[in-house]
Specification:
Elements lengths: L1 H31 L9 H8 L3 H8 L2 H20 L6 H25 L6 H19 L1 H5 L3 H14 L2 H10 L4 H21 L2
């Protein structure tokens, strides 16, 4: 009985520790969606998560450690938001823009700080590689039958057309609506794939 009780207590503590860690990461991510990375303080994150700063430091060592842990959860969230059947351009672009509407401004802020904060580099490199992987999978059909050079150039073009900077240019700088932005992206993608198919 003592062994069972000890095991139960250990499991309960592990679950509580895991829940606390996730609460801290979620609080940090919520701040990241609203603030510049270098303006976020551990005091605020701890307050939002309902823990002490010492708890945050004990679990993540500091803000850079917290960022490293948060990126995995953030990547999973982005992947879930973008999920759509490969080849369904309407759904793919709709989900992509929905993701950017929630996270795009935060990503743009992180990109602006990349050279000043080395800890951001691996995070943003992961984002770039994951975006390229998403494009490669989502638009596999128009890419499949192309010769390698044409496939690479077309993949590069679609990566650019669906990049967060393109979203920012259309939504923030040009003032297009969500619907207009989706239409612009789809028209450009269709144009590049049609052009490449004719000249493969």
């Amino acid at each position: 009985m003592k062994t069972a009780t000890r095991s139960y207590n250990q499991n309960a503590r592990a679950e509580s520790t895991e829940a606390t860690g996730r609460r801290i990461v979620d609080a940090f991510l919520a701040r990241l969606m609203e603030q510049w990375f270098d303006e976020i303080t551990l005091d605020r994150v701890a307050e939002d998560a309902g823990v002490t700063v010492q708890t945050v430091l004990r679990r993540f060592s500091g803000k850079e450690g917290l960022l490293a842990s948060a990126v995995t959860i953030f990547a999973e969230q982005v992947k879930a938001k973008r999920a759509a059947p490969a080849g369904d351009v309407d759904r793919l672009i709709e989900n992509l823009i929905a993701d950017y509407e929630k996270t795009g401004d935060a990503v743009i802020r992180l990109l602006a700080l990349e050279e000043r904060h080395p800890a951001l580099e691996p995070v943003l490199e992961l984002g770039r590689s994951e975006h390229r992987r998403w494009v490669s999978s989502a638009f596999a059909e128009p890419l499949r039958n192309l010769e390698p050079p044409a496939r690479r150039h077309t993949l590069d073009a679609i990566v650019i057309l669906t990049d967060v900077y393109t979203w920012k240019l259309l939504r923030r700088d040009m003032g297009q609506s969500v619907r207009e932005t989706a239409a612009t992206m789809k028209n450009l993608i269709q144009a590049i794939t049609a052009h490449t198919s004719k000249h493969k």
